[in-house]
UniProtKB/TrEMBL annotation, chains A, B, C, D:
One GO-annotated biological process of the protein: glutamate biosynthetic process
Key words of the record: Acetylation, Hydrolase
Binding-site residues, substrate: 73, 125, 169, 176, 200, 252, 270
Coiled-coil ranges from the UniProt annotation: none
Family: Belongs to the glutaminase family.
Subunit structure: Homotetramer.
Species for this entry: Bacillus pumilus (Bacillus mesentericus)
Pfam families (alphabetical): Glutaminase
The gene coding this protein: glsA
Protein name in the entry: Glutaminase
One of the record's GO molecular function terms: glutaminase activity
Entry EC number(s): 3.5.1.2
Catalytic activity field: L-glutamine + H2O = L-glutamate + NH4(+)
Length: 326, 326, 326, 326
């Protein structure tokens, strides 16, 4: 497939994105920054950053594309892949299911109701905490290093943890502690609770830009093949499984709606980031026929925890560029 | 796109399917026929029928491909499309959500828990009963006629209701009556409860063959375009929405697992039928690059309500022919 | 026990009750009539009727004590006693438990959650509908006759059904139909659903005055002994069991609060009636040392379904006359 | 009240209790010791100890009446009284409700379902942990001292904590930690989580004998009046409220059954202890007309967490001596 975007096309894409983003940016007022972490609350709500990267290197960037923000729940995708790489898919799926659930991301009641309490999927907190506990490594430092190594392998640089955010999360993580102790009780947690929470909350506090997550999204969309390094960095079956999970469970309890009206695997975080994976499509004619990765950052979030302007932008791109996988 | 399968390829496909089906058929012993409807219980559990139809007319058939069976929950897809056609998508989505839920298909508790009780999606009983109540038409006969008209428009013949199955369902529909009266109480039901149940249970009792549902699946996979009549019989947006719903919610509470390990929009019924929609794929090299519809019939079902051999067959096809949309 | 209240004491009681009732009556404004049944909605909300009857025939009456109203949930006590009389306690307790639940009276979700769906107690709708289905008699008429016979045996006259209320209940009983069909599905219902609902809704529509329920309350408080007929009309073990159920489950999901701050077995109905059973007490010095039955009617109800002024009046009486059983 | 039991009567009681206890003791085989705490698991399951104490000092003792065991959930009664004494009833009831719930003692889901998550009552773990957090005192040591002071005031000696049991509980308290962190998140916990758990788990580990809890039960049954010290040690309103809570919620999710078939306020612990409060009764003719306190110890517990032989013994006593408050 040779579908490198010509300079003309790339300019056209860029100016379309500029225009759409300008139209959409003011809608940040319909949401607000995540309130429970002071460090997230104080950033400028009107920011909007976009990166789109194709496998041929073509790219579109907009606005605050290079502003650093923390991964938050987007890290659930990365730790899931890391756990699958390090422990094998069957080991991971013995400890966490892959079923969507219409509940809020931090819900605990289903652990009690659906015996024996296996977390529904790795994209909700209960499942992601379980995943953090089974990462390779004996200590929290070793487990985290496994995640950092993976990210470095994907984006070519070692990310850092935003210490202010991490401290803030650590101090207010009562609900996550409740989940973790519950999982410990039901034997789904393999490590010490506090160690696990250190891993989980630090992975949430990893700093990235839209470009970083666009690149990770691109690699996942390419079934784990890194188009620039020209190496299979994630096995195809893990990449596919990850995309299925992102589509069915990636946008909190608006995942069904997002699948219906955007139709691409994506994962959001309460920091306002969204990472989307657009597979290649025979049907798509305009740009990015061979797929792309998209990173968006808009810190004002809706009731479900998704970036207000990020979701609007993805709806627009999906419609205009026919991105849906359906 | 001109990708008509050559005679050679079609022969190769047929003999592959024959071989895989023979290997898989004996696993019907791991499941059993749906027990609550006598008419379903008494059919031969070892049956296995398969139809695959491509947009160029190429097809593969196996075994009991022409044995009639009742749609059961597969009818939820058709009534949802009918309601969207007759009432418009926004009207329908005001009354039923599009979020997956990890609950059993006939679950009632979430209607009470998630105020104000809007059904989670049209692929579970609560949502499908709601959809049946809003079909165009004042009487149950008119509403049913709307469904029959749609099916006739899709497959070129008017289906009939299996009266024995229908009577059996009517007599044992206590749980569905409970759901329907609950929905009536919370104002989600637009028609009389008994009328709605007549529509719902009759649509479940419509008789088809694997060929019929393979053709419907093909049309949906083609975004609503009927490749043989060369007419857009379902608007593209409705077809896309339907595919998203099938992927996230179509296989009862194994939908996430099916998305992860098969990866195509599909809908099952407790009669043992599965209708799958395979969109075209740039990536796919072997047969059915331009997509296909698949109909399967294997009456022995698993704990979730899905055909044991049907799911195995679809996993095999997805793997061998790279059908996944991810 | 000879503790007939002297004329002086009775006059003192009467004037106390008159004074307290006048003070409490205006608080009906904090509640409102049950809305879902038109016939209940249109009565004068400010009504307040009280009857207190002691085993020696002493009595106190206030205000609208002789205004007829429908039993509604108070009938649950009577049908439970009737079922125990007709079928025996073990038979009844095989079909309905005696555990309180913090849920609303018409809740359905716990039937699904707590396998295998046995209703928690006969004072909530699910349990009471089950009880109605197991009353002696093949038809709804026979089952109802059994209830009417019991009431006639208790109060010396045959009550009648308020047809307007019954018709109104029948037409709007969607939620109760949902419960009944659910119970049918799980095999807790012994009769046909519609027959059972006829019994249940007619028993709810039986018309009484505060004097009638005060007398029934007195008999139950006297362990089933009718002090005026001087006959044991209900076996002691059934009366005791009934009082325990009233105390733990009788005031909807304010039962715990009522037990804590009033402390007498009581059952309320959404029509605004409350029937209370005050056992004898060695500790009590003032009136009604040998116990009494209390009937109250105040149609404005609170969020839990209990008469606003009725509960206030019982709190006052309990405090002033030391009625608590604790 | 002068109703001292004659020597003859006391001998009769003693020999009855001896006989009943011998008959009931072998049924310990129908239960088993609480397994999750090693120190509880290893005691002799066949032990049975009984103490009954009347306000006149009469008493009956049987078997292992002086074997020390840990309070476990019986401590919930004492910490609730302590909190009411130290903070006032309204303050306590702002933070914990008084409604029974049919759920298991360590259930968490209702905290999530019934917004805003106020614990249902102080006799389940969630409520008791909340109560421990609001005891007077800044540190866990001060809070515990408040409980020890109360117990010393009641039984005339300062109890001690069984360190082995406490260490065992501390190490396995994952579920209680989950509850505590959840309550912290929803702002029902006033102290630090770990401090609160230290208080809660140490109060559970306080060692007593049946005589100790019989005396505490007697004082509560006497409305807080200490019949031997002749002092009101607990205000009457707090004692009454406590008895109501014990009756509706004291026997885990068998509370309704216990109220129905025993009918006295009681609280059990998984160590096998039960503390019961028998109020005076005009109706009761045989012993303990003026009430009594009962302490029982039988370490083999049933599925609900109540001592198998303890419940049987209380049923027997209630029947033979007409103890029911109903």
């Amino acid at each position: 497939m040779k579908t490198a975007i010509s300079n003309n096309t790339q300019h056209a894409c860029q100016s379309s994105v500029d225009q759409w983003a300008e139209e959409i940016r003011p809608y940040y007022k319909n949401g607000q920054n995540a309130g429970y972490i002071p460090a997230l609350g104080k950033v400028n709500s009107s920011q909007l950053g976009i990166s789109v990267i194709g496998p041929d290197g073509s790219s579109v960037r907009y606005g605050d594309w290079d502003v650093p923000f923390t991964l938050q729940s987007i890290s659930k995708v990365i730790s899931f892949i890391a756990a699958c790489l390090g422990r094998g898919v069957p080991y991971v799926l013995d400890r966490v299911d892959v079923e969507p659930t219409g509940d809020a991301f931090n819900s605990i009641y289903r652990l009690e109701m659906h015996k024996p309490g296996k977390p529904f999927n790795p994209m909700i907190n209960a499942g992601a905490i379980t995943v953090s506990s089974i990462l390779p490594g004996k200590t929290s430092t070793e487990k985290l290093a496994y995640i950092f190594d993976l990210i470095e392998n994907l984006i070519g640089k070692r990310p850092s943890v935003n210490e202010e955010v991490y401290q803030s999360e650590w101090a207010t993580a009562h609900r996550n502690r409740a989940l973790a102790y519950y999982l410990k009780e039901t034997n789904y947690l393999e490590s010490d609770v506090e160690d696990t929470l250190e891993v989980y909350l630090k992975q949430c506090s990893i700093e990235v830009t839209t470009e970083d997550i666009a690149l990770i999204g691109l690699i996942i969309s390419s079934d784990g093949y890194h188009p620039f390094k020209q190496v299979q960095v994630i096995p195809k079956d893990i990449a596919r499984l990850t995309k299925a999970l992102m589509l069915t469970c990636g946008m909190y309890n608006a995942s069904g709606n997002f699948a219906a009206f955007v139709g691409v695997p994506a994962k959001s975080g309460v920091s306002g980031g969204i990472m989307a994976c657009v597979p290649p499509s025979a049907r798509r004619e305009f740009p990015f026929q061979t797929g792309c990765g998209i990173g968006i950052y808009g810190p004002a979030i809706d009731d479900c925890g998704n970036s207000i302007t990020g979701v609007m932008m993805l709806k627009k791109l999906a419609k205009e560029w026919d991105l849906s996988i359906f």
